[in-house]
Amino acid sequence: MATHKKPGKWRARTQAVRGGQMRTPFQETAEALFLTSGYAYEAPEEAEARFKGEAEGFVYSRYSNPTVAMFEARMAALEGAPCARATASGMAAVSAVLLAGLKQGDHVVAAKAMFGACRYVIEEILPRFGIANTLVDGADVDQWQNAMTPATKMLFLETPANPTLAIVDMKAVAKIAEAGGARLAVDNAFASPALQRPMESGAHIVVHSSTKYIDGQGRALGGVVLCREDFLKDHLQTFLRNTGPCISPFNAWLHLKSLETLSLRMQAHCENATQIADFLAEQKKVTRVLYPFRPDHPQHNLARAQMDGGGGVVTFEVEGGKEGAFRLENALQLVDVSNNLGDTKSLITHPATTTHQRLSPDARAALGVSDGMLRISVGLEDPADLCEDLEQALSTL
Ligand SMILES: *Cc1c(COP(=O)(O)O)cnc(C)c1O
To answer: What would the pLDDT profile of 359-388 be if each residue is shown by its tens digit?
Structure first.
């Protein structure tokens, strides 16, 4: 039925708009939304052939769906990945990679600084299945090397990491994984493929929460796993088909269409975030600003080497610890208090009492998450309005 567009050698911005498109005989210009659970066959012989994998075509939307397939193909083109599979959320993507790729007796090495739920899966859920872990300071390449054991099968990291925006040297860690016969999985949610493509640095697997910058408008949850053919065939495909963390075709359609403006939005997020970071750095009551592309970021050179932009998140510390941070949040009139990120609307959160509250005070201190720390996901509003809002809120401290 569907006709395929030839992707040819299109550049990233063209892939973002046209990659993976399949048209029905109606020749619709916008990608179609296929809200269907099942597919009919011309004959039982055809059903048999599709179930055996001998004929192409869709079988059931837990396996695949044309709208979902378009989203997957476009993501694969943007990340430079051979294969992509979309999931119901970012955590479904992360959990599937870890649970499909590891078994009893295996060992995973991960950077301490990571999204709270990822850390929960690695520290609390995997050990129930006999999968051990070592958490390292992601910025220290020697710690990655020293944590490797003969049982290590997966290395997992996030860069830039939440909320400190610490950067991990992906090329160095990919080499360690390769030498140890393990796979490197990178959570690319903070940068998006518009700013960073971990497979170019040697990552074997990339995971996304498409809920964040890929949707970009705070509407729908989704996730994506990008990988090579061996991982799909040997681990991921059967796991996803039989456990069922599939994305709704509706959410896949939203995220597919959102990819068309991803690079424009990321450019604007980066410009706004740069302005906000520079503004905050000049404020008396702000004691510290963290933004990957500012020269005072401890890994500024590495960030510039592996990213095309500093991203949309700025982290900063205010005087007065938790009380100061809460007072500032309460005084904001434009920026919303929300733990989500990657929205067109600017959102601020206090990591110590929200995303990182599960960690002990010592574990937070080890990550550099202080009581006065705030994380702002800079949106697409006029940056002058955002600076005015932050200025009046800071004046209450
Ligand atoms: C949000 C997020 C996740 C989880 O994604 P969901 O879509 O909320 O399940 C994982 N990793 C990072 C870095 C995130 O920001």
So the answer is: 999 999 999 999 999 999 999 999 999 999
CATH 2.40.10.340 fits 10-260, yes or no: no
Whole-angstrom Cα distance, residue 267 to residue 13?
12
CATH of domain 262-394: 3.90.1150.10
Alpha carbons 18 and 53: distance in angstroms, whole number: 28
Please enumerate in sequence order all residues whose Cβ is within 8 A of that of 40, keeping only pairs 6 or more positions apart, or say none.
none
Per the structure block, which two tokens stand in for 266? 């990321």
**Residues in contact with 160: Cβ distance below 8 Å, sequence separation at least 6, in sequence order:** 166, 167, 190, 191, 292, 303, 307, 311, 313
Q: What spacing in Å lies between the alpha carbon of 71 and ligand 1's midpoint?
A: 18
How many angstroms separate the Cα of 127 from the Cα of each of 106, 108, 159?
A: 10, 10, 24
For ligand 1, the distance from its centroid to the CA atom of residue 211, given in whole angstroms, is 7
- pLDDT confidence tier of residue 9, bands split at 50, 70 and 90: confident
Counting ligand 1 atoms within 8 A of each CB, the residue from 87, 89, 91, 313 with the most, and so the one to mutate, is 91
- Spacing, Cα 99 to ligand 1 middle (Å): 17
List, as one string, the DSSP characters of 293-316: TSTTSTTHHHHHHH-SS--SEEEE
* Residue 189 CA, closest ligand 1 atom number: 13
* Residue of 168, 212, 221 to mutate, ligand 1, most atoms within 8 A of C-beta: 212
Residue 178 CB-half CA count within 13 A: 11
Q: State pLDDT tens for residues 284-333.
A: 999 999 999 999 999 999 999 999 999 999 999 999 999 999 999 999 99
Question: Above 90 in pLDDT, residue 133?
Answer: yes
Task: Name the residue ranges covered by the structural domains of the chain.
Answer: 10-260, 262-394
> Which residues' Cβ are closer than 6 Å to ligand 1?
89-91, 115, 117-118, 158, 162, 187, 189-190, 209, 211-212, 221, 223
d(CA 225, CA 231) in angstroms, rounded, equals: 11
